[in-house]
Amino acid sequence: MPRSGPLPAALSLLLATAALLPGPAAAQNEPRINASEDVIIHPYGPAVTLQCNLTTSPSPLSASYWVKNGEEIPGTRKSSNTTEYKILKPRAEESGEYLCVFVFSNSPIANATIEVRATPDITGHKRSENKNEGQEALMYCKSVGFPHPEWVWRKKVNGVFEDINNSSGRFFISNKDNYTELSITNLQINEDPGEYQCNATNQVGSVSVTTILRVRSHLAPLWPFLGILAEIVILVVIIVVYEKRKRPDEVPDDDEPAGPMKTNSTNNHKDKNLRQRNTN
Q1: Furthest-apart CA atoms within the chain: distance in Å
Q2: Rounded to whole angstroms, how far apart are CA atoms 148 and 14?
Q3: Cβ of 108: how many Cβ atoms within 10 Å?
Q4: N or C: which end of the chain has fewer CB within 10 A?
Q5: What pLDDT digit, counting tens, does each position of 111-136 carry?
Q6: How far is CA 157 from CA 3, 107, 171, 182, 194, in A?
């Protein structure tokens, strides 16, 4: 007869561990979501539809909705195991990180992530910057598009754009996600004017725009005053020349009579003749 006795310690530990493992029913209650693949959109391309299908629900479903870049998309909340979101006009601003979210009555929220990627689109920048010598110039670029781009500033030198050379220590670049700034302090009229380019590059593509920097002389603020002064001087010179070239007969001489005048001797002679006639 086989002997009955206590089980070996290793076998007892194995049986205890097996008892703690979740059974097939517990594994089946984990939420499962079938989601669309990540997608790349292009401007003026066809509409894109994002889809999620909840195949396994741990408890009754309360609601489902869509989230873009951490914010719920209005009008997408409903109660259905299948949900979709349509991007009717694919543009860079529509790219981002999308989540389909499922809310259960007695279980934690479940979600799936779909990345919608696009080439950066620079939506704002200064086309030109006009400053005086010694002042500070500030140029910027901002973009839309996911993933966030890497920013690079360049300046045109001999017809070719080259990365900014900050040997003078006057150039300062600040980058943050979809925004970048280039500031130049103590502007030099012989070194700094020209074309500057900001470039945004991500995993999908690259785009650049150009800003023209103009640097004026220290005397630039005086130019309006100098212009007015020059006009006054020219006007005075014209008046003086005109007065000198006037013809003499245009100005009457006060010393000369305007016409012939009768003298007193003539009048006396006429009086004598009249008296003689009366006597006769």
Answers
A1: 210
A2: 51
A3: 9
A4: N
A5: 999 999 999 999 989 899 999 999 99
A6: 96, 62, 16, 17, 9
